[in-house]
Amino acid sequence: MDFRKEYAGLLEEIAGEAEEMAMGYFRSNDLRTEKKLDGSVVTAADRGIEEMARKKVAASGLALEVLGEEMETAAGGERGPGKRARLIIDPVDGTEEFSRGIPTFGTLLGIEREGEIVAAMVSAPALRERWSAYKGMGAYRGERRLSVSKTERLSEAMIFTAGTGPGNDAGRRAQMRKVQDAARRSRSMGGFWQHMLVAEGIVDAAMDIKGKPWDYAPSLLIVEEAGGRATSITGERSIYGGSFLCANGKLHEEILGFFR
Q: Which end of the chain is less congested by CB atoms within 10 angstroms, N or C?
Protein backbone atom coordinates (compact mmCIF):
# COMPACT_ATOMS: atom_id res chain seq x y z
CA MET A 1 0.00 0.00 0.00
CA ASP A 2 1.19 3.52 -0.78
CA PHE A 3 0.91 5.15 2.63
CA ARG A 4 2.37 8.40 1.31
CA LYS A 5 -0.46 8.75 -1.17
CA GLU A 6 -3.05 7.97 1.50
CA TYR A 7 -1.80 10.11 4.37
CA ALA A 8 0.70 12.75 3.18
CA GLY A 9 -1.97 15.31 2.38
CA LEU A 10 -3.49 15.17 5.85
CA LEU A 11 -0.15 15.17 7.68
CA GLU A 12 1.18 18.10 5.64
CA GLU A 13 -2.01 20.08 6.18
CA ILE A 14 -1.91 19.54 9.96
CA ALA A 15 1.83 20.27 10.14
CA GLY A 16 1.49 23.45 8.12
CA GLU A 17 -1.25 24.92 10.29
CA ALA A 18 0.49 23.73 13.48
CA GLU A 19 3.62 25.61 12.42
CA GLU A 20 1.68 28.84 12.02
CA MET A 21 -0.13 28.39 15.33
CA ALA A 22 2.99 27.52 17.30
CA MET A 23 5.06 30.38 15.90
CA GLY A 24 2.23 32.79 16.70
CA TYR A 25 2.76 31.99 20.38
CA PHE A 26 6.52 31.35 20.41
CA ARG A 27 8.43 33.99 22.41
CA SER A 28 5.19 35.92 22.77
CA ASN A 29 4.30 37.91 25.88
CA ASP A 30 0.81 36.44 25.58
CA LEU A 31 1.97 32.86 26.19
CA ARG A 32 0.80 31.46 29.52
CA THR A 33 1.59 28.06 31.02
CA GLU A 34 -0.48 25.78 33.23
CA LYS A 35 0.23 22.53 35.05
CA LYS A 36 -1.58 19.36 33.95
CA LEU A 37 -2.67 16.47 36.15
CA ASP A 38 0.65 14.73 35.58
CA GLY A 39 2.63 17.85 36.56
CA SER A 40 3.84 18.69 33.05
CA VAL A 41 3.37 22.08 31.40
CA VAL A 42 0.63 22.92 28.91
CA THR A 43 -0.11 26.05 26.88
CA ALA A 44 -2.88 27.34 24.65
CA ALA A 45 -0.74 26.28 21.68
CA ASP A 46 -0.79 22.63 22.81
CA ARG A 47 -4.56 22.60 23.17
CA GLY A 48 -5.22 24.63 20.03
CA ILE A 49 -3.02 22.50 17.77
CA GLU A 50 -4.54 19.24 19.00
CA GLU A 51 -8.07 20.60 18.56
CA MET A 52 -7.21 21.73 15.02
CA ALA A 53 -5.76 18.31 14.18
CA ARG A 54 -8.86 16.52 15.45
CA LYS A 55 -11.07 18.72 13.28
CA LYS A 56 -8.93 18.08 10.21
CA VAL A 57 -9.03 14.33 10.78
CA ALA A 58 -12.82 14.46 11.13
CA ALA A 59 -13.11 16.47 7.89
CA SER A 60 -10.63 14.34 5.94
CA GLY A 61 -12.97 11.47 5.11
CA LEU A 62 -10.28 9.02 6.28
CA ALA A 63 -11.21 6.25 8.69
CA LEU A 64 -9.06 7.52 11.54
CA GLU A 65 -9.43 7.91 15.27
CA VAL A 66 -7.15 10.27 17.22
CA LEU A 67 -4.89 9.61 20.17
CA GLY A 68 -3.66 12.98 21.42
CA GLU A 69 -1.59 13.99 24.40
CA GLU A 70 -3.82 16.74 25.70
CA MET A 71 -7.14 14.90 25.68
CA GLU A 72 -5.59 11.70 27.03
CA THR A 73 -3.75 13.48 29.84
CA ALA A 74 -6.86 15.46 30.77
CA ALA A 75 -8.75 12.16 31.03
CA GLY A 76 -6.07 10.86 33.40
CA GLY A 77 -4.74 8.02 31.27
CA GLU A 78 -3.87 6.68 27.84
CA ARG A 79 -4.96 3.88 25.56
CA GLY A 80 -2.74 1.10 24.32
CA PRO A 81 -2.37 0.05 20.68
CA GLY A 82 -5.58 0.69 18.78
CA LYS A 83 -7.54 -1.79 16.70
CA ARG A 84 -8.66 0.94 14.32
CA ALA A 85 -6.33 3.18 12.35
CA ARG A 86 -5.58 6.41 14.16
CA LEU A 87 -3.54 9.58 14.21
CA ILE A 88 -1.24 9.84 17.22
CA ILE A 89 -0.31 13.45 17.97
CA ASP A 90 1.89 15.36 20.36
CA PRO A 91 0.85 18.91 19.50
CA VAL A 92 3.92 20.54 21.08
CA ASP A 93 6.68 18.16 22.02
CA GLY A 94 9.03 20.11 24.26
CA THR A 95 6.43 22.42 25.79
CA GLU A 96 8.88 23.37 28.54
CA GLU A 97 11.39 24.50 25.92
CA PHE A 98 8.65 26.19 23.89
CA SER A 99 7.44 28.15 26.91
CA ARG A 100 11.01 29.31 27.67
CA GLY A 101 11.72 30.46 24.12
CA ILE A 102 14.02 27.56 23.23
CA PRO A 103 13.55 26.54 19.55
CA THR A 104 13.79 22.74 19.98
CA PHE A 105 10.05 22.02 20.03
CA GLY A 106 7.85 20.42 17.43
CA THR A 107 4.58 18.81 16.45
CA LEU A 108 4.77 15.01 16.25
CA LEU A 109 2.37 13.07 13.99
CA GLY A 110 2.13 9.33 13.42
CA ILE A 111 -0.47 7.15 11.70
CA GLU A 112 -0.94 3.79 13.39
CA ARG A 113 -2.62 0.86 11.62
CA GLU A 114 -3.00 -2.52 13.30
CA GLY A 115 -0.35 -1.62 15.87
CA GLU A 116 2.20 -0.43 13.28
CA ILE A 117 3.25 3.15 12.56
CA VAL A 118 2.96 3.48 8.78
CA ALA A 119 3.26 7.24 8.27
CA ALA A 120 5.13 9.85 10.27
CA MET A 121 5.87 13.54 10.26
CA VAL A 122 7.77 15.80 12.64
CA SER A 123 7.57 19.56 12.23
CA ALA A 124 9.98 21.93 14.03
CA PRO A 125 9.01 25.41 12.86
CA ALA A 126 11.54 27.38 14.91
CA LEU A 127 14.28 25.19 13.43
CA ARG A 128 12.66 25.50 9.98
CA GLU A 129 12.80 21.74 9.55
CA ARG A 130 10.36 18.95 8.78
CA TRP A 131 11.04 15.20 8.79
CA SER A 132 8.83 12.48 7.33
CA ALA A 133 8.66 8.77 6.59
CA TYR A 134 6.18 6.34 5.06
CA LYS A 135 6.58 2.63 5.64
CA GLY A 136 8.81 1.05 3.01
CA MET A 137 9.61 4.40 1.37
CA GLY A 138 12.58 5.80 3.32
CA ALA A 139 12.95 8.72 5.72
CA TYR A 140 13.47 12.34 4.74
CA ARG A 141 14.33 15.77 6.08
CA GLY A 142 12.59 17.92 3.54
CA GLU A 143 13.66 16.40 0.22
CA ARG A 144 16.90 14.87 1.55
CA ARG A 145 16.84 11.12 2.15
CA LEU A 146 18.27 10.15 5.52
CA SER A 147 20.65 7.42 6.59
CA VAL A 148 21.95 6.55 10.06
CA SER A 149 25.63 6.58 10.96
CA LYS A 150 28.03 3.66 10.58
CA THR A 151 29.71 3.88 14.00
CA GLU A 152 30.24 0.33 15.25
CA ARG A 153 31.32 0.71 18.89
CA LEU A 154 29.87 2.68 21.79
CA SER A 155 33.38 3.80 22.72
CA GLU A 156 33.46 5.71 19.43
CA ALA A 157 29.88 7.01 19.58
CA MET A 158 28.16 10.31 20.26
CA ILE A 159 24.93 9.70 22.21
CA PHE A 160 22.14 11.96 23.42
CA THR A 161 20.01 11.26 26.48
CA ALA A 162 16.84 12.39 28.25
CA GLY A 163 15.32 11.62 31.62
CA THR A 164 18.34 12.63 33.71
CA GLY A 165 16.33 14.57 36.30
CA PRO A 166 15.33 13.45 39.81
CA GLY A 167 11.74 12.79 38.75
CA ASN A 168 12.85 9.67 36.89
CA ASP A 169 13.62 6.20 38.21
CA ALA A 170 16.97 6.28 40.05
CA GLY A 171 17.94 2.79 38.89
CA ARG A 172 17.31 3.63 35.26
CA ARG A 173 19.21 6.89 35.62
CA ALA A 174 22.18 4.99 37.01
CA GLN A 175 22.08 2.56 34.08
CA MET A 176 21.89 5.46 31.63
CA ARG A 177 24.90 7.13 33.24
CA LYS A 178 26.88 3.94 32.62
CA VAL A 179 25.97 4.17 28.93
CA GLN A 180 27.07 7.80 28.89
CA ASP A 181 30.37 6.92 30.56
CA ALA A 182 30.98 4.17 27.99
CA ALA A 183 30.38 6.47 25.02
CA ARG A 184 33.00 8.69 23.43
CA ARG A 185 30.76 11.75 23.92
CA SER A 186 27.31 12.28 25.43
CA ARG A 187 24.90 15.18 25.72
CA SER A 188 21.56 15.60 27.49
CA MET A 189 19.08 16.85 24.92
CA GLY A 190 15.67 15.20 25.21
CA GLY A 191 12.63 15.52 23.01
CA PHE A 192 12.15 14.51 19.40
CA TRP A 193 15.21 16.30 18.03
CA GLN A 194 17.72 13.83 19.43
CA HIS A 195 15.95 11.01 17.58
CA MET A 196 15.87 13.00 14.33
CA LEU A 197 19.63 13.51 14.66
CA VAL A 198 20.04 9.73 14.88
CA ALA A 199 18.00 9.33 11.68
CA GLU A 200 20.21 11.94 10.00
CA GLY A 201 23.39 10.10 10.99
CA ILE A 202 24.65 13.05 13.04
CA VAL A 203 24.21 11.32 16.41
CA ASP A 204 24.80 7.58 16.82
CA ALA A 205 22.18 6.82 19.49
CA ALA A 206 19.57 8.56 21.65
CA MET A 207 17.62 7.33 24.65
CA ASP A 208 14.75 8.46 26.81
CA ILE A 209 13.97 6.50 29.98
CA LYS A 210 10.45 7.87 30.47
CA GLY A 211 7.78 8.83 27.97
CA LYS A 212 4.41 8.26 26.33
CA PRO A 213 3.43 6.81 22.93
CA TRP A 214 2.83 10.24 21.39
CA ASP A 215 6.44 11.15 22.26
CA TYR A 216 7.78 8.33 20.09
CA ALA A 217 5.23 7.50 17.36
CA PRO A 218 6.88 9.28 14.41
CA SER A 219 10.45 8.76 15.64
CA LEU A 220 10.19 4.97 15.53
CA LEU A 221 9.29 4.91 11.83
CA ILE A 222 11.64 7.72 10.80
CA VAL A 223 14.64 6.07 12.47
CA GLU A 224 13.79 2.63 11.06
CA GLU A 225 13.27 3.98 7.55
CA ALA A 226 16.68 5.67 7.83
CA GLY A 227 18.21 2.24 8.49
CA GLY A 228 18.33 2.35 12.28
CA ARG A 229 16.60 0.47 15.05
CA ALA A 230 14.13 1.73 17.67
CA THR A 231 12.85 -0.05 20.78
CA SER A 232 12.13 0.57 24.44
CA ILE A 233 15.21 0.40 26.70
CA THR A 234 14.22 -3.19 27.46
CA GLY A 235 14.27 -4.13 23.78
CA GLU A 236 10.54 -4.09 22.96
CA ARG A 237 9.81 -2.74 19.48
CA SER A 238 6.93 -0.56 20.61
CA ILE A 239 5.99 3.04 21.33
CA TYR A 240 4.08 1.80 24.39
CA GLY A 241 7.06 0.61 26.45
CA GLY A 242 7.38 3.79 28.51
CA SER A 243 10.91 4.48 27.23
CA PHE A 244 12.73 4.78 23.92
CA LEU A 245 16.11 3.90 22.50
CA CYS A 246 17.09 4.50 18.91
CA ALA A 247 20.47 3.83 17.38
CA ASN A 248 22.17 3.18 14.08
CA GLY A 249 21.59 -0.57 14.43
CA LYS A 250 25.22 -1.48 15.03
CA LEU A 251 25.16 -0.09 18.59
CA HIS A 252 21.68 -1.08 19.66
CA GLU A 253 22.39 -4.41 21.34
CA GLU A 254 25.46 -3.05 23.11
CA ILE A 255 23.40 -0.25 24.66
CA LEU A 256 20.50 -2.56 25.58
CA GLY A 257 22.97 -4.64 27.54
CA PHE A 258 23.34 -1.82 30.09
CA PHE A 259 19.62 -2.04 30.93
CA ARG A 260 19.47 -5.80 31.53
A: C
Query: Angle formed by the axes of helices 44-60 and 3-25, to 10°?
Result: 150
Q: Strand (E) positions, 163-204?
A: 185-188
Domain ranges of the chain: 3-137, 154-259
Strand ranges (DSSP E) for the chain?
Answer: 33-35, 41-43, 65-68, 86-93, 106-113, 116-124, 129-134, 139-141, 144-145, 158-162, 185-188, 205-208, 229-231, 244-247
What is the pLDDT, as a whole number, of residue 22?
96
Architecture of domain 3-137: 2-Layer Sandwich (3.30)
Cβ 79 vs Cβ 73: under 8 Å: no
Q: How far apart are CA 111 and CA 101, in angstroms?
A: 29
On whether the 154-259 domain is CATH 3.40.1190.20, my answer is no
Give the percent of the chain with pLDDT over 70: 94
Mean model confidence pLDDT for the chain: 92
- Give φ, ψ of 203 to 5 degrees: -115, 145
- pLDDT number for residue 197: 98
